[in-house]
Amino acid sequence: xxxxxxxxxxxxxxxxxxxxxxxxxxxxxxxxxxxxxxxxxxxxxxxxxxxxxxxxxxxxxxxxxxxxxxxxxxxxxxxxxxxxxxxxxxxxxxxxxxxxxxxxxxxx
Length: 108
Description:
- With 108 residues, the protein is of the alpha+beta class.
- The protein has helices spanning 24-27, 30-35, 79-107; strands at 2-5, 8-11, 14-16, 19-21, 37-39, 55-62, 67-74.
- The chain has two domains: 2-74, no CATH class; 77-108.
- The chain is rod-shaped.
């Protein structure tokens, strides 16, 4: 049993999951459990997000069918992604510069 807490209802069939508590029966009070949505699932039953560059997974839940799914939203690039972009740009510029130098050397 898991408990969905702090979730935002976008419609009757679409809830953006805030927090998932995996041990609500032993670690949450009755009031805390009542404030969330109890779902008869365990962590292994939930889908795993895909690793998509520059996109963040957002978990959704359908209270009627109890289905979970991820949607992906743009996110700012990480330092590693920015560095990879700069390295790729420098490699492209270096190759073009080598090409120009070769053309100039062939003329001269």
